[in-house]
Queue: 2 jobs
Job 1
Amino acid sequence: MYMTTIISDSQFDEIFKEKDLIVLDFFAPWCGPCKMISPVLDKVSEVFKDNEKVFICKINVDEDSKTAVQYSVRGIPTILFIKNKEVVESVTGFKPESFLIDKINYYLS
């Protein structure tokens, strides 16, 4: 099973140099809905693992809160779709695999 990459605040800016679309999940280990969406994100990451234009990652808000504050994340899980360094969409709460795949394909087209 492919695992979604966990990043830190210090790695965040580097990602933009390599990818067109960033899908960033803000999570915490104690969050129930975050635990539910984690295997879904792993499956979505598997689908797009060979696509050089998209990077799917997550950041632990307990350990790295700077990025969450920067994007005014108020609840978790929150997933940001960031294209060309701009947030094009933000969704909060559990989302199914098909929803996430459709959103990624939409923003890559």
Job 2
Amino acid sequence: MGLHSATWRIHASAVDDLNLLEDSLRWLTGDDCNLTVEKDKSWHGSEQTVLEATTKRKKAALKALARLGDEVLEGLLDEGVSRRIDDEKVMHVRIRLSNLVRGEIVIISEDDAVSVAKGQFKIESYPGSEPSDVITETILSMLNS
């Protein structure tokens, strides 16, 4: 067991460097990702672009999670992954965008008012197994390899 898919999403303003953000998402998700760029208007009416990198291959999704790095993965385990998992068996992670474009991963809390990249990891969990146990075992195996 492990992951079904991984998705990273960034909401960029009209003044953001889209090429830099695209490169950052490709680095974070891996070369085997489907990158979409959608221009739209924000809730307040200003122009925004939504960049989304998705991989639906299990091995690529595991690599995308591993790319967070040992220190971040250990931090996720220390704080308890169950609080990050929704009813759809998806683990949510937010990282600071200003660090991501420098190739650094910094997890932020939900109440930080900074630009973020939002990650979603669909956990491969079946009846009889708890999603938090599956992702914990997955992360521990990454850390021990």
